[in-house]
Amino acid sequence: MNNDTTFDYIIIGAGTAGCLLANRLSANASKRVLLIEAGRKDDYHWIHIPVGYLYCIGNPRTDWLFQTAAEAGLNGRSLRYPRGKTLGGCSSINGMIYMRGQARDYDRWAQLTGDASWTWENSLPYFKLHEDHYKGANALHGAKGTASPLIQHNSTDYGKVLRHHQAGGEWRVEKQRLRWDVLDAFAQAATEAGVPATDDFNRGSNEGVGYFEVNQRDGWRWNTAKAFLRPMCYARPNFELWTSAQVAKLVVESNGGNSPLDAPLRCTGVQVWDGTEMITATARREVLLCAGAVGSPQILQLSGIGPGALLQEHGVPVVQDTPGVGANLQDHLQIRAVFKVKNTTTLNTQANSLWGKAKIGLEYALKRSGPMSMAPSQLGAFTRSSPDQAYPNIQYHVQPLSLEAFGEPLHRFNAFTTSVCNLNPTSRGAVSIQSKDFRSAPKIAPNYLSTDEDRKVAADSLRITRRIVAQPALRKYQPEEYKPGVQFQSDAELAQLAGDIATTIFHPVGTTKMGRVEGPDHDPMAVVDSRLKVRGVAGLRVVDAGVMPLITSGNTNSPTLMIAEKAAQWIAEDAELRQ
C-alpha cells in the first residue's frame, strides 16, 4: 500500500468482473488503478485443483460463509450461500462451467433498458473478446491472438484502440478431461426422450445434451486472477492491489452541478478497513463497484444509497432513497434426484476405498485428468419442462456420484445425481443490511418457490427427469429412484418435495438491476442505467451480476465477464470525452 491514496479508478472487489476491469483500465499507463479485495490472495492450493471447490466452499479462507434466511418456499430451511472471498472471487470456488445463456436473455435486456447494445448480436463480440476457446476462433468463439474488431491489447491506451483490433483471449475454455459410462448413457437416454445432442451450449440456443465446457487450463482451474491479473497487471507501475481490505462505505458528496449528467451527488472515493485502521482512498474519475449481487447492494446501503426506510431502521443516514438497491434478487434453485445403479462403477465406490483414492490421485498427478480434474457437474442438458414452453426453461447438471447434502460423505452404493433447475424463475427476493456495521453479514432472502409458476415448473421438471431415466439407454444399469422417491407423484406432492430437497446452485443476480432511469416509461426500481451508472450519483458504476435485470438461462459467471468487458469500453470512452 503506497502513501499516495489518490487514484483515477477504484475497483471494489477482485472477483470475476473486478479482475477484468483492472486489466483493461490499467492498460492505460497514464491512469492509476486501485483494486481492493476483502479476501486474501489466491495462493491456497485447493483453489487451483478443480475438485478443490469441495474444500473452498464453506471455508473462511475463501468463502464469505453467508446463509439465507429461513425460506418459506423451502419449508423453513436455510441454505448455505457461497460467495468467493479471495482473488478471483467466485471464479476461484465455482463450478468452472462456461455458459453464456440464451440469445433471448440479452434481447430481453435490450428491451427492458431501451439500449440495443445489450442484444445477443451486440453482446456476442464481447464474449469472444476475452475468450480462448480450445477449438480456435470462429463465428461464435474467440481465441488468443485472433482478430477482433474491438481492441488491441498490446496498446497502453485501452480507450483509443477499441475500434481496431487484436483479441486478448485470456479466458481459457477447454473440454473436460474425463468421461463416465453412466453419463454417456444418460446423454443417450435424453436424446431418446427428445432432447437433441449438442457439442456447443454457447451458440445462442443452448437446447440439447452434452458435456459442459469448463474454464480450465491443462487440468487446472483457470480463475480470473490468473487470466487477467497475472502477469500483466502486476508488472504495471500504475496498478495497485490491496488484499485483506474490506470496503466499509463509499464517500458520496454533493456534486455541485459539475457533472455533465447533472447528478446531484458524486462518489469521490471509499473508506477501507485494512484490519488495523480505516483508510480513505480517493477516485479522480470513477469508483467501480464489483462486489457481486450480495456485496454491492450491501455496500450501497451502508453508504446511504438504498431503500430509505431500511437505512433509517439501521441508523444509516439516507444519502439517496433508491428503493431498488437489494431488491429483484433472482437465483437458480436445483432439485436433486438420486438414482441407484447396478452393473457399473460410479465415483461413490471409486472414492470410498483407499486404493480408489490412490488411483484418482495418481491419475491427476500424472495426467491432470480424472475425478480430481472434474467440475462439480460434468454433463448438462437444456430442455422444456412442458410442451407449452416456448424455449428451453430447465437445465440439468448430471454427476456420477450421490450424497445426502453438499459437504457430506458420498453414498456407499453406486448412483448418479440429476439436478434440475428452473432457468427463468419468477420468484423475487432481496438482500438487505441487518446492521450499520460493515462487518455484519446482510440478510439474504431469495424467496424461492414463492410463485405458482415456479412450483409448477419444479413439479414438471421432476417428471421430465423420470421420463429420461426410464429410457432404454439406461436400462442395463437398472436405475432405482432413491431420492425423492416414486411415491411422490402429484403436483402438490412434488412442489412440497422440492421445498424439502432443493438447493441453490449459487447464481444470485439482479440486486442492482439496470433499466430505464428517465422518461415516462422509466423503471423506478432500476439502480443503474444501461451503461451501469448509478442513478443520481456521478462517478459510480456497478459492474457485476447484480445489474442483470433478468437472470440468464444458465450459469452466470461468463455473462458477468461480458458485462465487465462492455463496461471497460464505456469507462474508457467516457474518460476520453472528459479530456
UniProtKB/TrEMBL annotation:
Residues 292-306 form the Glucose-methanol-choline oxidoreductase N-terminal domain. Gene3D superfamilies: FAD/NAD(P)-binding domain, Glucose Oxidase, domain 3. Keywords: FAD, Flavoprotein. InterPro entries: FAD/NAD-bd_sf, GMC_OxRdtase, GMC_OxRdtase_N, GMC_OxRtase_C. Its cofactor is FAD. Belongs to the GMC oxidoreductase family. This is GMC family oxidoreductase N-terminal domain-containing protein. It comes from Rhodoferax mekongensis. The lineage of its organism: Bacteria, Pseudomonadati, Pseudomonadota, Betaproteobacteria, Burkholderiales.
